[in-house]
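Fill in residues.
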């Protein structure tokens, strides 16, 4: 295609810009979500053979200790660690001030009520007088409060946690000096309250002290100092050695076929950790980003080249491109987000839904190639890409082959079952190859496969959303439209019964021909049922609906009659718009006569006006000519079926000659130049029509009459 010359220059340039934006947008969105943390692209397990070639260290790296060893050794270092707490002296001062203030506001000392005074007078007449002893109680409480606050008060929960952690002592920061203090000498609020009551039971009775609201003066004055505590921990662990050896650059680590021992496993794990750490530098991240852009860009470019070379009709239709690249982006982004954030397991994602949707709306080859591109891009997010690619491509193939044309919910259910079984069988085989031990099979994976199959069932309701968003029409919708009990077809059968019967015959002929040449039979069948709906506006002007010998064309001129007949195309489009028929069905209405002429009226006019040239547009259908296989089949079937009704006799020769004459005439007049139908397809269609018409118009045998017997 020349993008810069010719009358379509502006349109072609916009089209090129659109495709460039799709390419850049798809690559940009996918790469943006891809994880860029370091990866060690080797799979290995203890006591399993090394599946790759000889591995040589390319840089020096330490041999890190096992995580369990690290935890055990660090725990032993921290067993005597003492956390830090800040002593708040202001809390003690506030508590004692509050105690004195409460005493001075009550002239009866600590006694808060007249009832309590009467109680004291009744039980301790000779002792409690003039408030003298109550002053002693206040001094006693003040003394004990100072004592427990100097020791330190913790919340009950905090003290319980220290006991649970087996902490024997803490560091208490008092005036910027840290002093060690045993937790046995610390108080919780509850313990401090108990100590206030029992510190001197000989001179101060607990039942009197309980009336003094002691809880008001007790609050924790030790606060956990997280910053100092963590700093102290880090100082202890700074001297901890995380490694117990080193591997030098150029040193052999392992060779193909060698068994991965515990020691070698630790070395490989150390190499993996070190590789990830090195990849986190800014330079490494930039290189990784460049690699991801190049990787994704190559696959997306190859996919666009495939469409341009082998699926030009998809490549030139914006709706098709939007659907294909939206699905690719969606699955790549979902996979990247799940892997990055460690959400569930990627095997629950119904990747087989992608080729199913594309197969329903486009074709099997494009569906499989789209899935291949998507799976290869998604695989770079995973640690184990090989088994992921193996499982997803196999399941995708099974899904495509099991769902040639989706028209019933039961078909999707069958596909989901087959996909689950495929996942399970392939993964089981893969495990037998790699594990060689049935006891080590990963049962959780089979649960993911079942969830995957269940989610695949949601393809059915999603088809409706895809149809409305991208302007497609699924087989499910076509099946619903071809139901002759729907309002439009039922009205057609009542208003124009002859046309309805004609449409039914055309649908049968066209669907059979479509099956033979690999076209979409359900599409052409549905299009055939609706191609003549415009005749409902003027039923009597069409011979198949006339009765009683009345022909309204006798009162019209040839141009007028031609316009009435041609009008069934535009009337059909109006009815289609009114009844919200899909665009693919409207295309059958406009193309089933193409740019042909109403030959009966055209030839009649020519015969009556010898030597004159008529206004060709008055006798020509608006078109356009067919631009798909299905539309070409419908045009042939429509003309053949209508002409077959006028045969004087139905013999094998007459039917064969009629079919050849009509279709050869259409080929010669160039009606099929713009559609991808081949001479081989046309020959096959002819054979189908001849076979079907012979069956329809076969000669029936005469049934014998019963003779009357003489009595």
């Amino acid at each position: 295609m020349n993008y810069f010359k010719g009358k379509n220059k502006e349109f072609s340039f916009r089209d090129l810009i659109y495709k460039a934006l799709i390419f850049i947008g798809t690559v940009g969105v996918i790469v943006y979500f891809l994880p860029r943390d370091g990866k060690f692209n080797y799979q290995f397990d203890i006591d399993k053979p090394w599946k790759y070639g000889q591995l040589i260290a390319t840089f020096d790296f330490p041999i890190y200790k096992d995580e369990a060893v690290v935890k055990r050794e660090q725990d032993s270092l921290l067993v005597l660690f003492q956390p830090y707490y800040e002593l708040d002296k202001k809390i003690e001062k506030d508590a004692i001030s509050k105690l004195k203030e409460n005493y001075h506001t009550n002239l009866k000392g600590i006694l808060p009520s007249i009832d309590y005074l009467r109680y004291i007078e009744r039980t301790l007449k000779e002792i409690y007088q003039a408030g003298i002893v109550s002053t002693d109680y206040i001094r006693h409480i003040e003394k004990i409060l100072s004592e427990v606050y100097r020791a330190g008060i913790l919340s009950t929960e905090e003290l319980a946690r220290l006991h649970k952690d087996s902490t024997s002592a803490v560091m208490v920061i008092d005036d910027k000096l840290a002093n060690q203090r045993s937790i046995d000498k610390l108080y919780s609020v509850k313990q401090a309250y108990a100590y206030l009551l029992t510190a001197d039971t000989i001179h101060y009775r607990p039942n009197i002290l309980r009336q003094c609201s002691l809880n008001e003066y007790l609050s924790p004055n030790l606060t956990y100092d997280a910053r100092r505590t963590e700093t102290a921990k880090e100082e202890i662990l700074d001297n901890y050695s995380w490694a117990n050896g080193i591997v030098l650059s150029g040193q052999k680590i392992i060779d193909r076929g060698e068994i991965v021992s515990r020691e070698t496993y630790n070395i490989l794990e150390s190499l993996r950790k070190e590789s990830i750490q090195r990849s986190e530098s800014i330079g490494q991240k930039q290189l990784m980003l460049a690699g991801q852009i190049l990787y994704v860009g190559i696959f997306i470019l190859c996919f666009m080249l495939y469409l341009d070379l082998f699926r030009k009709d998809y490549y030139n239709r914006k709706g098709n491109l939007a659907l294909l690249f939206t699905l690719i982006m969606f699955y790549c982004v979902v996979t990247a987000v799940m892997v990055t954030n460690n959400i569930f397991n990627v095997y629950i994602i119904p990747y087989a839904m992608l080729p199913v949707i594309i197969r329903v709306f486009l074709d099997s080859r494009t569906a499989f190639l789209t899935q291949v591109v998507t799976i290869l891009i998604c695989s770079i997010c995973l640690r184990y890409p090989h088994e992921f690619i193996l499982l997803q491509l196999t399941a995708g193939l099974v899904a495509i082959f099991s769902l040639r044309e989706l028209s019933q919910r039961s078909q999707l259910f069958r596909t989901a079952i087959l996909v689950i079984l495929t996942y399970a069988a392939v993964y089981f085989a893969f495990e037998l190859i790699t594990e060689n031990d049935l006891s080590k099979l990963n049962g959780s994976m089979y649960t993911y496969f079942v969830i995957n199959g269940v989610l695949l069932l949601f393809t059915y309701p999603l088809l409706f959303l895809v149809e409305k968003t991208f302007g497609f029409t699924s087989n499910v919708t076509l099946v619903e439209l071809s139901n002759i009990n729907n309002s439009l077809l039922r009205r057609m059968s009542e208003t124009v019964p002859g046309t309805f019967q004609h449409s039914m015959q055309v649908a049968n002929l066209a669907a059979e021909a479509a099956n033979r040449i690999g076209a979409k039979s359900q599409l052409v069948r549905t299009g055939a049922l609706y191609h003549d709906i415009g005749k409902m506006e003027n039923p009597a002007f069409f011979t198949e609906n006339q009765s009683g010998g009345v022909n309204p064309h006798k009162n019209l001129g040839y141009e007028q009659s031609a316009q009435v007949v041609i009008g069934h195309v535009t009337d059909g489009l109006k009815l289609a718009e009114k009844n919200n028929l899909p665009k693919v069905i409207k295309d059958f209405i406009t193309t089933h006569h193409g740019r042909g002429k109403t030959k009966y009226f055209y030839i009649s006019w020519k015969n009556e006006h010898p030597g004159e040239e008529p206004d060709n547009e008055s006798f020509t259908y608006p078109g356009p000519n067919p631009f798909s296989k299905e539309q070409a089949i419908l045009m042939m079937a429509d003309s053949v079926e209508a002409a077959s009704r006028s045969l004087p006799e139905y013999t094998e020769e007459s039917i064969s000659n009629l079919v050849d004459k009509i279709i050869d005439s259409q080929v010669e007049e160039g009606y099929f130049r713009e559609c991808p139908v081949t001479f081989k397809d046309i020959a096959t269609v002819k054979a189908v029509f001849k076979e079907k018409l012979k069956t329809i118009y076969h000669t029936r045998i005469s049934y014998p009459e019963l003779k009357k017997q003489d009595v």
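The CA atoms of residues 468 and 582 lie 10 Å apart.
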